[in-house]
UniProtKB/TrEMBL annotation:
This is Pentapeptide repeat-containing protein. Residues 1-16 have a biased composition (Basic and acidic residues). Keywords: Repeat. Residues 1-33 are annotated as: Disordered. It comes from the Bacteria.
Amino acid sequence: MVRKASDPRPARRPEPRLPPLEPYGGAGLEPDGDYDGLEFRGADLTGQDGGGARFLDCALASCTLTGTRLRHARFLDSVLGPVQGVGTDLAEATLRDVEVTEPRLGGVQLHGAVLERVVVRGGKLDFLNLRTARLRDVVFENCVLVEPDFGGARLERVEFVGCAVKGADFTAATLKDVDLRGAEPLEIAGGLDRLSGAVISPGQLMDLAAVFAAALGVRVV
């Protein structure tokens, strides 16, 4: 596809190149743990506390993250997926050069987190909390986002490709070079006035016309 001058700048995608990994043989996560070059495969991490831990060159495959506490954790040059769970706490975490594939997660807490060069590919994320988070070079690809909350977040070079975005809230968010054209459907529940810096398609504009009119106090009769 030929890029037009009016198109937003594209996101830079991560290119994690994992070294040969060692199977993780520990009993469970530890707060402030240091995990380097490890593969967590089929691990049930339900309710465990890895707050402040660092994961470098790691893979989490077929893991359960229900109620897992990973606040302030750092995932660097790592691959996650498939992963599943409810109520995973990643508040104020850092994800840099990370691929997330086929997640099945509900109520993930990523408020105040930093996401840089991250791809979320496939799967479904329900009630994703990204309030006040910073997203730079992030791609949501072929996934379903149900009521994602971007309230107060900063989004720069963020793309939605082949996604279903339902009930997104952009209240008080700041957007720059955000490409929403690949979201089908695109449903926005709040923050229409914050879409400056985003690009939508003519078809999406028609679909959102009634919502825009309501936000402006315009009656269509």
